[in-house]
Design goal:
With about 375 residues, the protein is an alpha+beta fold. The protein is built from seven helices and twelve strands. It has a domain at about 75-110 and about 190-369: q2cbj1_9rhob like domain (Jelly Rolls, Sandwich). Helix content is about 30%, strand content about 15%. The structure holds 2-oxoglutaric acid and fe (ii) ion (FE2). GO terms for molecular function: dioxygenase activity; metal ion binding.
């Protein structure tokens, strides 16, 4: 069932598929699940994508190959193999990093959204459960109770009363399910405390350079569809600011299954590209709780998990799902609590074209890239 992304958070389970992906989250997102506004989640894919979990993670099915990238991209360094995680040294120059921060400040950042991806499935499941079980039995029971003491009660009137009761109880169940879903979404929002904004104006230096470098990096994976430029698969860059103590809880950027919500934004998230926009001395590392430490200089020392220290201009690249969209459990990651202020910019590369308002518009891609 659902994932809450920034996109999906791990404590999730199918029985109540109430779970965070973004999600990321996603991602997920102005709880994008409840609004039609642009999501600059994670989500918390959400997608998605920090759930209370009684949940046993599903057994890992064989994850296939990731999408192809330009393996000779300058500065590309693998810090984990299978699943592949790369850092890319000096991916963006200082001027681009500063421009991204400046434009995000000018536009203003708002609380980062967490997408409760899969909420439609949850609502369907919960309503189905209520309708087939308690609502039916309560309706019949209430009709039977009403018939007590009425000598003229017939089977037909019992059936009619049951139907009437069923309709009333179903409406009550629907209201309760809606309230529960809203409560759940509000809870997930606590998992991501940063603020963010999307920058889709490719006439701006930072956004243009970020998208154009990302397009070079992902060029080989779009060569199968020559009509679509690599940037057509991107969500518009999201700039995220973490102030002291702000964080993003462990989550997945892909969704286990949130097909309805994912449709408008290019389907599954196949790659996450994060650029650190400032140097961070303390806190704010990006940690992969299921992967071992690396010997790279950006690794937090004395830590047993892969945990990357933000360095201005460096990028981090990983693949939340394989090239066929199969969710990769091993890529769970988190933005550890900030001590120094931390700024990042993120692009999610989806499985299919991402149309505006989530993606970039074709004219701008043609004109600026
Ligand atoms: O802040 C970080 O280091 C990670 C951000 C992230 O995972 C996301 O935006 O989905
Ligand atoms: Fe993420």
């Amino acid at each position: 069932m659902s994932d809450v992304t920034t996109r999906s958070y791990p404590h999730k389970k199918r029985a109540f598929n109430v779970a965070l992906t973004l999600a990321s989250f996603a991602p997920v997102s102005t709880i994008s699940a409840f609004t039609a506004t642009r999501r600059h989640t994670t989500p918390i894919k959400p997608r998605s994508q920090l759930h209370a979990s009684t949940i046993t993670p599903p057994s890992q099915t064989a994850v296939g190959s990731r999408i192809r990238i330009n393996e000779s991209y300058p500065g590309l360094k693998r810090v984990h193999a299978n699943p592949d995680v790369f850092v890319i040294e000096n991916f963006l120059d200082d001027a681009s990093c500063e421009d991204l921060i400046g434009k995000a400040k000018d536009k203003g950042t708002t609380r980062s959204p967490v997408a409760y991806a899969g909420w439609t499935d949850d609502v369907k499941d919960l309503l189905g459960l209520a309708a087939s079980g308690p609502v039916t039995w309560l309706a019949i029971l209430a009709a039977w109770y009403e018939a007590q003491g009425d000598e003229n009660a017939s089977v037909i009137s019992l059936v009619l009363h049951s139907i009437r009761n069923y309709a009333g109880l179903f409406v009550i169940a629907a209201v309760l399910v809606a309230a529960f879903t809203k409560f759940r979404a509000d809870g997930l929002q606590q998992l991501r405390t940063s603020s963010s904004t999307t920058l889709d104006d490719l006439s701006q230096l930072g956004a243009k350079n970020f998208v154009s470098c990302a397009a070079d990096l992902f060029a080989p994976s779009s060569s199968s569809n020559a009509d679509l430029p690599p940037a057509a698969y991107f969500e518009a860059p999201t700039v995220i600011r973490y102030e002291r103590d702000q964080s993003l809880a462990p989550h997945y950027d892909a969704n286990r299954s949130a097909d309805v919500e994912d449709k408008n934004r290019g389907g599954q998230t196949l790659a996450t590209l994060i650029v650190y926009l400032n140097d961070v001395q303390t806190g704010g590392t990006t940690k992969f709780g299921k992967l071992p430490a690396t010997d790279d200089i950006r690794q937090v020392k004395g830590e047993s998990n892969l945990n990357i220290i933000p360095r201005k201009g460096d990028a981090l690249l990983f693949f939340p799902a394989d090239q066929n969209g199969l969710f990769d459990e091993r890529t769970e990651h988190e933005g550890c609590p900030a001590v120094d202020e931390k700024w990042i910019a993120r692009i999610w590369r989806h499985a299919e074209r991402v149309n505006p308002p989530f993606g970039l518009c074709d004219d701008a891609i043609r004109k600026y890239l």
